Amino acid sequence: MNNLKNKQGKIILIGAGPGDAGLLTLQGKHWLQKAEVIFYDHLVNEDLLRFTQKETEVIYVGKKEGIAIVEQEKINSLLIEKAKEGKVVVRLKGGDPFIFGRGGEEIQAAKKSNIPFLVVPGITSVTGVAAYAGIPLTHRHLSSTLSVITGSNEKNQGDIHIDWEKIASRSGTLVFLMGARKLPLIVEKLMKFGKSPDTPIAVIQWGTTARQKTWKGTLSTIGKKTSKEKISPPALTIIGEVVNLKPEIEWYEHLPLFGKSIVVTRKGDQAEGMIERLGELGAEPVFFPVIETVAPEDWATLDEALNNISRYDGLIFTSVNGVRFFFQRLKEIQQDIRNLKNLRVYTIGPKTAEAVRDLGICVDVVPEDFVAESLIESIGKEKITGQHFLIPRAAVAREVLPKTLREMGAQVDIAPAYQTILPKPKSDAFSKRLQSGDIDVLTFTSSSAVKNFLELTGKSLFEEVKKTRIACIGPITAETAKNAGLNVDILPKEYTVPALLEAIEDYYKP
Description:
By secondary structure, the chain is α/β, with parallel strands linked by helices. The chain contains 20 helices and 21 strands. The chain folds into four domains: 115 residues, Tetrapyrrole methylase, N-terminal domain (Cobalt-precorrin-4 Transmethylase, domain 1, 3-Layer(aba) Sandwich), CATH 3.40.1010.10; 128 residues, Tetrapyrrole methylase, C-terminal domain (Methyltransferase, Cobalt-precorrin-4 Transmethylase, Domain 2, 2-Layer Sandwich); 116 residues, Rossmann fold; 126 residues, 3-Layer(aba) Sandwich (Rossmann fold). Helix content is 34%, strand content 20%. Strand 13, helix 10 and strand 14 form a beta-alpha-beta unit. It is elongated and about 90 Å long.
């Protein structure tokens, strides 16, 4: 009998947080990595999909401005249908799924159908957005109570069906969720039922993201302050004396890269450090991998080299990927790492050198500049005539290194250790952001990243790409971008990711 038929499916309800992908819980990340099917909403940051498996089925069921692409009853039945197939089904919802998120209804449906389920709470926009706006919802001297109120209704009627008189009489902090379109009504009702016109109010749009914007005033003045601009969802409204603490406590909006959406085009396992640092600087990292590394079509050349490793004098690694696949294959064919003891090891770049050292192997030469030309200069100081070098690298790569070494009298073998392919985007969210001008910087850390990015985005988006600032890790990558018709705005003095991020920070310094 097929094992899949015996496998029991389950539904995992996960709160994705208010927007910043870094606010996802560890438990939420754990289940995203195990998910076989994901149903996600409109306000979920799609960067979270980078934690999923390549083969995970991703289904958008969002609701925008009150219009649902899939009705709630249909979502419930789809969740149950996929779980009955024996799959781990994740329902990914913005904020916390049990705070005005209809998560309770979805779990009730699962319970009724005898489907096992788990609930992973998320950071609600109530607390997350307020914190990023620098507004403490409670304060010992100002507010000891907190009321959370929906500013929306499912039937799209003019009024909001709450007891305005009781709400207006509360002395603590009031927080309205999903009330962007009803702001004039909320303000009018609160003052009508006794709330002082001088009560402080703040409206925060797109909280915890690069698009975060805050309007601050009082109940009597906020309408005038916001009348010239359309406040569209998502927006959070905070009412109470704690709003006056914002100038003293605000922090996120003062970070050096606040308000900037910066695209990371590196592949998943290499992007995390860059994404984390951008978040620390206040930017919104946008993950759009343009390279996926997989095994070469044929291991024969590398296997032959590994089985005869003693014939080589030097081993040259040009990338972290080359290191990873080389030693992975060494293990798979049961070769002994001690066979490398008589080889001199050369690397391009500190990260590549670090990857080798992490395996307990010393690196003999790391050039000052992290390009092939600099390594050639370093090797040229040695007597290499008659020396035999092995370069495990990508199936397709620049030929300048092996070509020049051969001209210098060395014998060079190239062994494909991996190949790069174009990944398939899980959604069209990035294309939409690029079209809307909602991207500030595109970062490229290799020539292949530039070429693959342009192939993935296509000719139809090329004009939007040209309008966006371009940051390249080094001159070779920059030259590739320029040859493709792009203007390079940011180029670091050192050709490393930390230096690239520092150059972006310097670019935006006032």
